Amino acid sequence: xxxxxxxxxxxxxxxxxxxxxxxxxxxxxxxxxxxxxxxxxxxxxxxxxxxxxxxxxxxxxxxxxxxxxxxxxxxxxxxxxxxxxxxxxxxxxxxxxxxxxxxxxxxxxxxxxxxxxxxxxxxxxxxxxxxxxxxxxxxxxxxxxxxxxxxxxxxxxxxxxxxxxxxxxxxxxxxxxxxxxxxxxxxxxxxxxxxxxxxxxxxxxxxxxxxxxxxxxxxxxxxxxxxxxxxxxxxxxxxxxxxxxxxxxxxxxxxxxxxxxxxxxxxxxxxxxxxxxxxxxxxxxxxxxxxxxxxxxxxxxxxxxxxxxxxxxxxxxxxxxxxxxxxxxxxxxxxxxxxxxxxxxxxxxxxxxxxxxxxxxxxxxxxxxxxxxxxxxxxxxxxxxxxxxxxxxxxxx
Length: 397
Hints:
The chain is 50% helix and 10% strand. The chain is mainly α. It has three domains: 8-75, no CATH class; 84-162, Orthogonal Bundle (DNA polymerase, domain 1); 193-362, Orthogonal Bundle (hpI Integrase, Chain A). The chain has a three-stranded antiparallel β-sheet with strand order 1-2-3, with helices on one face. Helix 14 (340-347) packs across helix 15. It is elongated, with a radius of gyration of 33 Å.
């Protein structure tokens, strides 16, 4: 039943050997197909497909014969053999040298809980855009979350291309998005004046000073806990925000973005909170705010949340996250008529468009006196010119 000259022959009662030339090398691989007449014809078809793929330049030895010792010899890219799990683990370890701890931790969660469970056993060369699209389409999350997931995968695969592990990045120039209904409401839920007073009264002294400062400065929680007394300019009544301390970091790091590094004007309530805090930590000339439970610098936002939650419960105020202190500050400033550009600088936003987009509904728009300033400044002159025109027309009639 042999097929001499056709590159197909029986080698046992349960297998057939095919032979072909690839990159100038005669290759022989065994197929686990019984050498019957139909089996030999099937082997011929497999060999013919291999030859066609070789001619087209798309033959992948590792995919065709993953258990073959020749796969490593002919692998054009190491990614044909390297698993996604192994690569992502090594890639994440390298990122620790260049990124903030909080960013690395975000990457780790996406890799460990999402990418590896789905693609971990595949090789890098097996990854396709279609595979990602089908996977993402099954996920029940927002487009923002989908974007974050794709961003991590795209960065890792970009590096794999640069390292010569794969020929191209299947996610390059492509982003998967779902059709989402318009959001009915945002997550901005500020505290009113009565709630602020109740919360501050219910907290321990040091925590009360920090939260009052938060309400009137707009700093993020990570920025509050990283604040040192050397960052306070008492003469100019300003505070310099240059560091942030997150739960995953051992020490303070750079702020969230470049624009987050900023100078914040100390409004009287914020300044009063710092004055009150001086009695607790100023002489140590280190951190401004301390965890009242151990009289040491807060170690991120989780300990703050514990004290915060207890304070809201004692104050009988509906629970919102500590980050709402920042939203409270922005809504107070804008609803009072402060210029969005100034608020943007105080908040560390890249531009006022971000501030307006997020807090538009807090900006005064239904003021019954709206337009009054423009009328006062310009209307008299306009009316005078109109009267002059009417007088001229009457004289010429």
